Amino acid sequence: MRKLYYAGGSIIISDQVCKAVLRYGRALARSGSSDLVVLPAFTENFGKGVAHILIGPASQMLSVPTAEFDVDLADAHMVEILESRTKELDPNRPSWSEDVADVSGLDGYDWGI
Question: pLDDT of 24-51, one tens digit each?
């Protein structure tokens, strides 16, 4: 699961949906357009719900891993939709494995904390 920070707030969504949203946001920014997306997310009361996000050229988003939930809201259909829209806007985008990649092997990293 990932926490996606956007417009002064945050939502918790699945890893794959979050990565697809970031990639779509970048394609929208490059094309100078915007779109409204509806995402499966956890609510403030830790229930399942949806989030409506307007993504445009000035959207500033960041995501971080979170362990707040044991349940994953994986939504392969939503990822397909977002990736299809991304491909329409940015057909030369990097492949999934080369873009928004996870970094592994940080368990032994000295964070200096």
Answer: 999 999 999 999 999 988 877 777 889 9
Tell me if residue 45 falls in helix, strand or coil: coil
Burial of 74 (0-12, 13-18, 19+ CB in 10 A): middle
Q: For residue 35, give the nearest of 85, 87, 88 by alpha carbon.
A: 85
Distance CA 77, CA 24 (A): 15
Through-space distance between the first and last CA atoms of the chain, rounded to whole angstroms:
24
| pLDDT (tens digit per residue) in 68-85 | 766 667 788 888 999 899
Q: Token digits for 88?
A: 């329409």
CA distances from 18 to 5, 37, 110 (A): 10, 12, 27
- Cα–Cα dist 18/1, whole Å: 9
What is the chain's mean pLDDT, rounded? 83
Tokens at 108, concatenated: 């032994």
Q: Say if strands 61-65 and 48-55 run parallel, antiparallel, or are unpaired.
A: unpaired
